Amino acid sequence: MTTPTTTRPDEQAATTPELESRRITSGQLPAWAPWAILGGAMAIAFAVFAVMNLEADLSDFNIVGALFVGMVIYIVFIGVLSAIAESRRHAIDRLMTALISTAFVLACLPLVSVLWTVVINGLDRFDMTFFTWSMRNVVAEGGGAVHAIWGTLIITGLATIISVPIGLMTSIYLVEYGAGGKLAKGITFFVDVMTGIPSIVAGLFIYSVFALLMGPGVRMGIMGALSLCVLMIPVVVRGSEEMLRIVPNELREASYALGVPKWLTIVKVVLPTSIAGITTSVVLAIARVIGETAPLLLTAGFTANMQLNAFESENGQMMTLPVFVYNQVMYPSAAAPDESIARAWAAALTLLVIVMALNLVARLVSKFFAPKTRGR
Length: 376
Hints:
The chain is mainly alpha-helical. The protein has helices at residues 9-13, 16-25, 33-52, 63-85, 88-122, 128-132, 146-178, 182-195, 199-214, 221-245, 249-257, 262-289, 294-299, 321-330, 337-369. It has two domains: 12-125, no CATH class; 132-369, MetI-like (MetI-like fold, Orthogonal Bundle), CATH 1.10.3720. Part of the binding-protein-dependent transport system for phosphate; probably responsible for the translocation of the substrate across the membrane. Its main location: membrane.
């Protein structure tokens, strides 16, 4: 039972601005004040850096410096205003909150810088030609990366189809059947070792296996997918294992008490309960390998033509977006080197868009397939 709150007649008659002014005079800033101060500080910082960047391109705008200066201005303003309008305890609390927020912004500055640089430079060639043309017979302007986009989607898709069942079943064994046994400990040890394997080693391993089976010099899309599997499987195993472990044992015991066998309990109870976390671990594994270049250079190779058959052994080289970026930067066109750099930036932006789309899919899966809880 809740106790009704009482308000004084003068407070009931007072308007909102009057109440806010009373809060300020009584030693408390209004709730919107920190956000207003932050917005004003950022506006001042961005205006100063924009004036300094008038004669330069937008790509030269120092967004990292603007954010940092904005947070410094925010710390000063919130500290001074809180010291004037509030008590010393409130002022120190506001200052510490501002410092923690600044530390968070500083941690995000590298990510912001990368995103800003890739987006600004990649938009120059982010057009229909880039997504509908390959680099066949292109020596100067024009051309696109449709062959590299299809290659990335096919190779990453094959790697996901192979890695996810293997990694998920391995994690199920470690959590549900291994129970700290010697075999489970050995698997955990080797999974940890595989997590730290350099990507070039994975590519060399797959290339060596296929060279022994089919002869040296062979390159196919499936080889690139298998090299990515070596990198994906340990990530899927570790992520799925942690998600399965946090499923409450009460759910398993309730299912066993109803006579449900263990395998059906895993399928109907454990996996649906942890599907959101498992999906997140899968997306993280895909994001881990989708930008790999070294193993794909060794296994899938590179080509300027469209190649959609990942199992073709003759002329089966398949271009991917990371390798496309590498080739455009390291071997630019002699006739139009700036066009090669623009295509490289557009390919990098395409990779970012694909990763963002995968994260969006993971969010949707978590929203619609996670177990629903009822309020009491």
